[in-house]
Amino acid sequence: MTVRHLVSIDDLTLVEIREIFAMADRFSTDLRGHAELCRGMISASLFYEPSTRTRLSFESAMLRLGGGVLTAADMRSTSASKGESLADTVRVVSGGYSDVIVLRHPSEGAARLAAMYSSVPVINAGAGSHEHPTQTLCDLYNLWVERGRIEGIEVVLAGDLRYSRTIHSFAYALARFGANVICVPAPGFELPDYVVQRLREEFGVEPQRADASRLGDIAARSDAVYLTPHKPHQLSLFTDARGLTVERVDAVYMTRPQTERHPDGGSGISDYVRLGKDQLAAESLRDAVVMHPLPRRDEISAEIDDDPRSIYFKQAARGVPIRMAILAVLTGAVRLETQARVPEVRLHRTPLGDNPCPNPTCISRTEARHVHPAYKIAARAPLRAHCGYCSQELRFALVGCTTSRRFHPRDSSETRKIRPDHLSFFSDERSALGAGFLPVDRPNPAPTSVEAGGAPIRAVPEPG
Ligand code: NCD
Question: Taking residues 59-72, what's their average pLDDT?
């Protein structure tokens, strides 16, 4: 039987997510009444980064389901500090030590890598600035409980949209559910291009300028953007001078500056978005719930903690029943009725070529000695590909074929004839020649000893 992982929010279909909500509802009415479900099972928390809510709510969830927990809350106390790779650690911890692994890591794509080596389900509890799917399930569940639906609601995403992994998973899911998103980034912390590109290409979302004057102060210093999945307006980004008017908001989702991931350590922040009594007085926010994945710094003032619209502590409390549901499903303790078949997307390994992932904190670069670069084809003509770990668009100028050992310019029609498993990417001619590849117009060389070909590896289920 194939092991099911939760690496990206896309690993679950919308039908499954709704079933998980219903299950979390049942758990929340009686948190102590389900201690038979995971009896005898063990979850292992591997946390390479600090955590309060995610780790403790996962551990509480497993204990409430009757299972046990192994905790490596500070990986400096493990063999990671002796240089052990993530792949090796996961092979060991999934080999009889535990029935499910909950992993947090500073590198984008770490959970994807772990899933490739684990014999038990891996749950991504936050990987760099990439994704945080279980926080998103918690956030969606909160919207579902508070608003009764997600389809068609208006959600403001505010703060550090560039480096917040919670924002990225949440934006993908909101797009799939058909919610409207208004981005209110702190200046310089807009959504990264690869996220916008994905929202556009895979979910049909078109970003447009938003007229956010009715949001009052929170949007005053921000270039607000509307992300709407309904596609009623075929204007491209910023062609409409006035923009779409933000009328009435259902939820404001605030995030802290993710300074630990800022290249300058946070010194570049000015004019960060803030929510206090004055901002909440805006007419458009009259009925909006205020959410935050926590921890907060001073982007949400304590003066609004008692406002009935502030639900961030309730939101954190709901992390327990939702994570009970996630654990119950992934360990197989409870079967989802719908069991939707999630189509498989193939990742292809590129054993040759210089790693074209442009992201210095991607796991394919931070653990380069242990990780084969892997990619996903985004388009064939011209050829575009995304890193299979961190989703960023690969940068390359030349494309090699590992069977013919020839390379071609990226935009050559010849590249379309190369099977994905036989592609190799190079930034320039020097590295292609260095790897034993030749230009198409050069005669055949003596046989090379360089290993050819890369096996496809199974991974990433598609959005439902
Ligand atoms: C978030 C995280 O770790 O990404 N926290 C959490 O899991 N509740 C948000 C944050 O740290 O800002």
Answer: 97
Confidence of residue 462 (pLDDT cuts 50, 70, 90): very low
pLDDT tens by residue, 286-324? 999 999 999 999 999 999 999 999 999 999 999 999 999
Which residue, among 273, 293, 311, has the nearest Cα to 187 in the 3D structure?
A: 273
**Cβ(249)–Cβ(215) below 8 Å:** yes
**DSSP reduced 3-state for 102:** strand
How many alpha carbons lie under 13 Å from residue 121 in its C-beta half-sphere? Answer: 23
- Cα 384 to ligand 1 centroid, rounded to whole Å: 32
Catalytic option among 53, 165, 292, 372? 53
Alpha carbon 127 to chain centroid, angstroms: 7
pTM of full prediction above 0.85: yes
Residue 165's pLDDT is 98
Residue to substitute in 56, 166, 315 for testing ligand 1 pocket (most ligand atoms within 8 angstroms of CB) = 166
DSSP conformational letter for 106: S
> 51 CA to middle of ligand 1, Å?
8
DSSP secondary structure, 228-256, as one string = ETT----PPTT-SSS-EE----SEEEE--
**Ligand 1 shell residues, CB under 6 Å:** 53-54, 126, 132, 135, 165-166, 255-256, 258, 293-294
Q: Would you say 459 and 8 are in contact if contact means Cβ atoms under 8 Å apart?
A: no
Is the pLDDT confidence value at 398 over 90? yes
For the chain, domains (ranges, CATH) are 9-133+319-330 (3.40.50.1370), 134-313 (3.40.50.1370), 348-439 (2.30.30.20)
User: Largest Cα–Cα distance of the chain, in whole Å?
Assistant: 76
Residue 452, pLDDT score: 39
Task: Report the candidate in 223, 226, 192, 193 with the shortest Cα–Cα distance to residue 208.
Answer: 226
Looking at residue 461, its pLDDT comes to: 40
Strand duo 180-185 + 154-159: pairing: parallel
DSSP secondary structure letter of residue 213: G
pLDDT tens for residues 340-397? 666 556 677 776 677 789 999 999 999 988 888 889 998 888 899 999 999 999 999 9
Which helix (H) or strand (E) is 33 found in, with range? none
What ligand 1 atom has the least distance to the C-alpha of 104? 3
CA dist 127 and 189 (Å) reads 18
427 and 396 in contact (C-beta within 8 Å)? Answer: yes
> What is the rounded CA–CA span in Å between residue 261 and residue 106?
9
Q: Which of 132, 141, 299 to mutate to test the pocket of ligand 1 (most atoms within 8 A of CB)?
A: 132
